[in-house]
Design brief:
Largest interface: A-B, 21 and 24 residues
Largest sheet of chain A: 7 strands, mixed
Oligomer: heterodimer
Shape of chain B: globular
Shape of chain A: globular
Radius of gyration of chain B: 14 Å
Number of strands of chain B: 11
Distance between the termini of chain A: 33 Å
Helix content of chain B: under 10%
Structural class of chain A: mainly beta
Helix content of chain A: under 10%
Largest sheet of chain B: 6 strands, mixed
Distance between the termini of chain B: 41 Å
Order of helices and strands of chain A: EEEEEEEEEEE
Amino acid sequence: ETGVTQTPRHLVMGMTNKKSLKCEQHLGHNAMYWYKQSAKKPLELMFVYSLEERVENNSVPSRFSPECPNSSHLFLHLHTLQPEDSALYLCASSQWIGANYGYTFGSGTRLTVV
Amino acid sequence: GQQVMQIPQYQHVQEGEDFTTYCNSSTTLSNIQWYKQRPGGHPVFLIQLVKSGEVKKQKRLTFQFGEAKKNSSLHITATQTTDVGTYFCAGPEAGNNRKLIWGLGTSLAVNP
């Protein structure tokens, strides 16, 4: 199994739908992250979890709701999204929380909001 | 706010030519990381530099961290088609070690 697995790879949803993105890491890492990648913008940090505790919420709209039931799993629950939320959503993990550790990214979920 | 800038934004080279991308931070960094993202792929961690003036090599890739720890470079010798992708640098946000500040990346195209 690859280090960080994300599902689904692609998702098309209407603005009134509710969907969830899933991330699972098999590396024994203690920190997990959600990032948003849009064209012509730097990678945007959304949420940070350390040992299942949310330690950073980067001013993300409430229509994005993260969940971390254990140190291996991370979810991003989506509801009433806007077309401008269409992007590549990347999950990442690192040995410990912090910018001193290299991140391992999943393959991402390509989200299209219609 | 703190910024990390990369130049050039795009680069086309002939296979076998060398390539260099530069990363400049508006603040001093405790470390700098480099990632590569292939087209349609996800960022993959390449290396982290920590010391002032540090130089590290990975086969044809040479990474440098500036003396003032505000800039860095990635040099690829004799590019190959497998080098195609976008190269990102990232460094910790000043005063918040939990967050990386990312550059926009340099997209490299290699003509065979």
